[in-house]
Amino acid sequence: SIPRYFGSGRVVRLILVDRYRCGYCGTCVGVCPSAALDLIELWLEIDQERCTGCGSCVDVCPVGALEMEAS
User: For the whole model, what pTM was predicted?
Assistant: First the structure.
């Protein structure tokens, strides 16, 4: 996959959700510093434009349902 580049020159990797693993607990939503995640009616939405690629959500997911897309 190809990393995305923004005007600032920083590389942002996409966050991927394994919908079979995700228990929709919302832990990831609470730790996202850019408010890029939202839990809507048992569906995790990720705003990839707001995501900074920090990986906080990946680190706290109790079931390992989130991963950073490899570049």
Answer: 0.77
